[in-house]
Amino acid sequence: MAYQSKDLSVLAYANGFTLWHYTTADTAASVDTAGYFNPAVDMLRAGDIIVANVETSGTTKGGLFFVSQAASGVVDVNDMTQIGATDAD
């Protein structure tokens, strides 16, 4: 799949920082691919954080992507930091 603008939404905005939510059936590795978020370059800024639900058509994973670059038509996010990777019970 590819980036879908309808799946990116603002959770909070303050002081030039935006906290986003994104949901997709894509894997975290696909979302992390350079250029995945290029269509959103006019909305995202370096330093923003994207809370994400990935692999939603299988075993959903959740995590955080840090926007490291969003300029000159290019968006790059750091690898996803997964949340809740282990359930010990």
Outline the structure in words:
Strands 1, 2, 3, 4, 5 and 6 form a six-stranded mixed β-sheet that branches. The protein has one domain (5-83). The termini are far apart. The mean pLDDT is 94. With 89 residues, the protein is mainly beta. 4% of the residues lie in helices and 43% in strands. It contains one helix and six strands.
Structurally, the number of domains stands at 1
General shape: globular
Helix content: under 10%
Radius of gyration: 13 Å
Mean pLDDT over all positions:
94
- How many beta-strand segments? 6
| Strand content bin | 35-45%
- What is the helix/strand order? EEHEEEE
List low-pLDDT spans.
none
Oligomer: single chain
Total helices: the number is 1
Helix/strand class: mainly beta
Largest sheet: 6 strands, mixed
Q: What's the end-to-end separation, in Å? A: 34 Å
